[in-house]
Amino acid sequence: MKRNGMYFWGGAALFLAGALLMTQVIGNQYPFFACYVILQFIVLAVAWSILGGYAGYVNFGTSAFFGVGVYTAVFLFKATGVPLAVQIAAAAAVGALMGFALGLLTLRMQGIFFSIATIAATIIIETAITNWRYVGGASGIQLQRPAVMAPFDNYVEMLFFVQAVMVVLAVAISRYIQNSWIGRGLQALKDDELAAECTGVPTLRLKLTACVISGALMCAAGAPAAMYLQYADPASAFNLNYSVSALAMSLIGGTAHWAGPVIGAILLGVTQQLLTVTISSEVNVLVLGVMLVLFVVAAPEGIVGLIRKVRSKRNEGEG
Amino acid sequence: MAPGSQAPLLRISALTKRFGGFIALDNVSVDIPPGQRFGLIGPNGSGKTTLINCISGAFRTEPGTVTFRDEDITRLAPHIRTRRGIARSFQIPRPFRSMTVAENLMVGLDFAADTSVIVSEAQRRDTMMSILTRMGLASKANVSATKLSQVELRKMELARAMATHPKLLISDEAMAGLSSSEVDEVLDLLMSLADQDITIIMIEHIMQAVMRFSERVMCLEAGKIIAIGTPDQVMANQRVQEAYLGT
After folding, report:
1. What are the beta bridge partners of residue B216?
2. CA B174 vs CA B57, B131, B159, B202: distances in Å
3. pTM of structure
4. How many domains are there within chain A?
């Protein structure tokens, strides 16, 4: 365990150092634009997996949380002009509250009812924002980026690094949950909720905790998006694509291990970016769908599940 | 041991449970003193499992109270009742399927272990292994719960219940579907647990097992208590014979 932790934090430090180095060395802006999106999806997929993977409660409302994150930042920026870090922190707080409220209302329902409720929440919130003039309403809002902070010489580079920090944070939280009693409790209630209760697991409280953490991370991931595009509108901030992508990335990567959503998000994220450049941005959705179907049929446990299967086969062969 | 001579461990008073218009339990009252081996019998659909669900908290009861160790637990959630010392097994085993046998027990130890005794991770592991050894499952510790045989599943459910350090263990047909030698095995296990100051409520259809195990037997029919007493008294009861044995 101890050694694993050292490897993990060593890897995280290396990753952040590499990201920082990239911003200092590479002059071309495109890699940052592309990588920002991939990093954002890693955070979303990891966050989704905390509730959807560990607890087995399928959340179709990723875009609701993401969009609320976007608009928390937009509102704060327009109203007070607070710096990016404050916008992200505020978005995380709003996301946590939203997760708590949504969880309290819906987590008593099991299975599909929770999923339906999350879709309903997305529609309600999007409609509310669409009719809110102050943040641009249906036509959206243009935003002027403030001056960039040292050591970065470009705002997108800074956003890229900020998102990289959030990736480390999200993965660290997810990894902590998986290895702790919270993870064991979530796994137990995913397997059998009544048996978990009768073994002492406070199922509702654990589900709420997962929903709060997941919601906070999703909102935080959305907060820098408005500055990234210098524009925000309800249709794209609450785009169903975020929900589908986060879900597909987690399932394709595998939800049994924290690394699953990371692998899935990198794999799908890179593929999408490549396709956007080489063919068209519309093909993305098609590829996402096809890959999801392939994995559900051929590897329902995702890539992590495949790796585990191969490993256990090899061990059996040796024994 | 005369019932009533000491404070009961579990007191059920005037418990009624309805499902729509169907009355599953009708004004059931019973005291179970600490340390008693209590057998619960009755034909299918007589309300045995419903009673267990009301004790363990899976069902909320309308009128009626459940008192455990002098505390009213009628409104408590199941996981809190488990921590207070009520553990159960299920009629159809409900293991955590994505986990190994050891991990199944660790859930109980993580969430409901006796924290005055067990503090560290190492102590939890030791306790887990000693429970598995007693249940004869030590060699299966790292086996997936899905790979167990029927009797092993039954034992694992009892082992998982033991991990929550119960004062009251409810065994809901832990012997259903087992061979006669396996029934003896599980019965011996339950006997050895009862010797350790654990009060046990056993629901069972296998009459020999109930008669051998129980100090006191209660028979339910259509949600009502029709007989309660020593095994011999209950078996001799005319209504029990009519309702349960069909003679």
Report:
1. B38
2. 19, 17, 12, 8
3. 0.90
4. 1
Integer Cα distance of A141 and B79 in angstroms = 49
A258 in a domain, yes or no? yes
- The full set of domains in chain B, from first to last, is 10-245 (3.40.50.300)
Contact residues on chain A for B161, CB-CB shorter than 8 A: 199
Q: Does A308 touch chain B (CB under 8 A)?
A: no
Q: Is residue A154 part of a domain?
A: yes
Q: What is the ipTM of this complex?
A: 0.90
Q: Do residue A191 and residue B110 have CB atoms under 8 angstroms apart?
A: no
Nearest CA in chain A to B106: A184
> Which parts of chain A are beta strand (E)?
141-142, 231-232
Per-residue pLDDT of chain B (247 residues; tens, 9 = 90+): 444 457 899 999 999 999 888 999 999 999 999 999 999 999 888 899 999 999 999 888 778 899 999 999 999 999 999 999 999 999 999 999 999 999 999 999 999 988 888 888 899 999 999 999 999 999 999 999 999 999 999 999 999 999 999 999 999 998 888 898 999 999 999 999 988 889 999 998 888 899 999 999 999 999 999 999 999 999 898 888 887 666 5
**Nearest-neighbour CA in chain A from B108: distance (Å):** 5
Torsion of CA A35, A38, A40, A42, to 10 degrees: -130
Range of the domain at A145: 29-318
A287 burial type by CB count under 10 A (0-12 exposed, 13-18 middle, 19+ buried): middle
Instruction: Please report, as a single letter, which amino acid is at residue A270.
Output: V
Of A187, A198, A204, the CB nearest to B99: A187
Residue A202 is nearest to which of B58, B79, B99, comparing CB atoms? B79
B96: nearest CB among A181, A188, A197: A188
Examine residue A136 and state whether it is found in any structural domain, yes or no. Answer: yes
Whether residue A16 lies inside any domain: the answer is no
Mutating which of A2, A54, A178, A199 best tests the B interface, going by the most B Cβ atoms within 10 A? A199
Distance from CA of B143 to the nearest CA of A (A): 12
Specify whether the CB–CB gap between B59 and B17 falls below 8 A: yes
